[in-house]
Amino acid sequence: MAQSAFHNLSSSLKMSLRSRVAARAEEVLEFCRKEGYNTDIALFIDLARHSGRRRFVVWSFAEKKAILCCPVSHGSGSQMSHTRSAYARLSNLDGSHLSSLGKALVAERYEGRYGIAYRLDGLDDTNSSLRSRCVVLHGWKYTTSYPIFPRASVGSFGCPVLSRRMMARVDDILKNESRVILDIFV
User: Fold this and answer.
1) Angle, CA 57 vertex, CA 107 and CA 31 arms, to 5°
2) What is the pLDDT of residues 68-93, one digit of tens each?
3) Any idea what DSSP says for residue 120?
């Protein structure tokens, strides 16, 4: 059953993206230390924010700040591509075409249909099917590099999708790192 990220919208509007990610970063850094994941950087997606706003963040734990911030598409739940979706609904079910919450390991890099991409391995019960659902981090020509609010971003079939330009920048960062965590939250 799909949940809506909309219920956390009011708390999201009261705090900036930076504040929300900074609060999450402390928790994720502790998780990374305990479980042996990367303690230099992590990726965050705040699905409580409108898809036309910046909500993808590359976070430096050492600097305690975002080193890259941009819009990101989420799973629209539609059977058709290019369906605009302002707020995420959530599911871990195959065929839902929706996004999943939780921490994921950014796994192997590959070049596929959409160019450079990274497989994702879900680490929580809420996203344990990411790999089997073929949910990956990738770029796409229809995703914007800049905020377009109040217009909604084009949705995906469940993948977090950056613009090709932003994906190239994220790839430049990830190529020099290993065992990076992506935390998708509301």
Assistant:
1) 60
2) 999 999 999 988 767 899 999 999 99
3) E
Domain range for residue 42?
Answer: 3-185
SS3 104: strand
Cis peptide before 150 (omega within 30 of 0): yes
Q: Which of 77, 83, 75, 3 is nearest to 45 (CA)?
A: 75
What single-letter amino acid sits at 138? H
* Cα separation of the two ends of the chain: 17
Give dist(CA 35, CA 71) in Å, integer: 29
Tell me the H-state helices in the chain. Answer: 9-14, 17-35, 164-174
Q: Which residues of 18-31 are buried (b: 16+ CB within 10 A; e: fewer)?
A: eebbbebbeebbee
Residue 154, domain CATH: 2.40.440.10
CB 119 within 8 A of CB 107: yes
Amino acid at the residue 35 = E
- State pLDDT tens for residues 155-185: 999 999 999 999 999 999 999 999 999 999 9
> Distance from CA of residue 68 to its chain's centroid?
13
Burial (CB count within 10 angstroms: exposed 0-12, middle 13-18, buried 19+), residue 55:
buried
Structurally, the chain folds into a number of domains equal to 1
